[in-house]
Amino acid sequence: MKILHIDSSIMGGNSISRQLSKAIVERIEADHDEFETIYHDLASDPVRHLSGELFAAQASAPEHRTADQQRDIDHGAKMLNDFLASDIVVIGAPMYNFSVPSQLKAWIDRIAVAGKTFRYTEKGPEGLAGGKKVVIVSSRGGFYGPDTPAAPLDHQEPYLRAVFGFLGITDIEYIRAEGVAMGPDQRQSALDGAMNTIASQCEKAKANRQAVA
After folding, report:
1. Nearest-CA neighbor of 99 among 179, 153, 155?
2. Annotated binding residue at 161?
3. Is 120 annotated as a binding residue?
4. What are the DSSP calls for 8-45, one per residue?
5. GO molecular function, one example (predicted)?
6. pLDDT of residue 174
7. C-alpha–C-alpha distance, residues 81 and 78, integer Å
8. pLDDT score of 208 more than 80
């Protein structure tokens, strides 16, 4: 079992998404005798945003690249390879200004690579990264569910669902903590509710594995 754990919150120890993504990974690890976990903190070790300079460097021979360009290329390649090698991807994805953190978007730009995780065919695009499970920890300051007035402003979860679906991943699970900016009581209630969801989902997955075994 190979687990890829991604955090993107800039809030450090005060981050709800970090607390929840850690809890999920610990649960998964506890349920498997053999596992390897790779962790990337996109806030403390960010992936650079795509640039024309990077595209030009990638198209050039290695001897024509600067050391800085080569480090950037190598960093992006590691992010892609870690993603491709994983069985389960756990992503801490807080909502920032109605969408995902720019750090997370930069990581997505490095894993959405034609010929690696998707390809274009005569019948349209085809995802090449299927077979994985993606667990997304979605934390939001307000309420953006489909039955709320703010639902049209949600460009976070629909975007992530579209991206990973485009890459061929259909097994996507959300753990939500909403309204975390609406007072300490609601913050704690959202955290407790998400933790309970994690516990119940992990127990359900464990029971399903035992039934199959």
Report:
1. 155
2. no
3. no
4. --SSGGG-HHHHHHHHHHHHHHHT-SS-EEEEEETTTS
5. oxidoreductase activity, acting on NAD(P)H as acceptor
6. 95
7. 5
8. no
**Residues 170-189 pLDDT 10s:** 999 999 999 999 999 999 99
Q: Is 16 annotated as a binding residue?
A: yes
Six-digit token string for 31: 């349920």
Angle at 20 between CA 201 and CA 146, to 5 degrees: 70
Q: Do residues 196 and 21 touch, judged by C-beta distance below 8 A?
A: no
Query: Binding site annotation covers 140?
Result: yes
Q: How many CB atoms lie within 10 A of CB 169?
A: 19
Q: All domains of the chain, ordered by start, with CATH?
A: 2-212 (3.40.50.360)
Residue 47 tokens, joined: 């992936």
Q: Is 35 annotated as a binding residue?
A: no
Determine if residue 174 is labeled as part of a ligand binding site.
Answer: no
Three-state DSSP class for 141? Answer: coil
17 annotated ligand binder: yes
Instruction: Indicate the SS3 state at residue 120.
Output: strand
Alpha-carbon torsion, ordered 127, 86, 109, 128, to 10 deg: -10
| Region 74-87 average pLDDT | 96
Residue 55 counted as an annotated binding residue? no
pLDDT at residue 203, as a whole number: 77
39 annotated to a ligand binding site: no
- Residues 4/89, Cβ–Cβ less than 8 Å: yes
Phi, psi of 61 (to 5 degrees): -70, 145
- Phi, psi values for residue 191, rounded to 5°: -65, -45
Strand ranges (E), the chain = 2-7, 36-41, 88-94, 118-121, 124-127, 133-139, 171-177
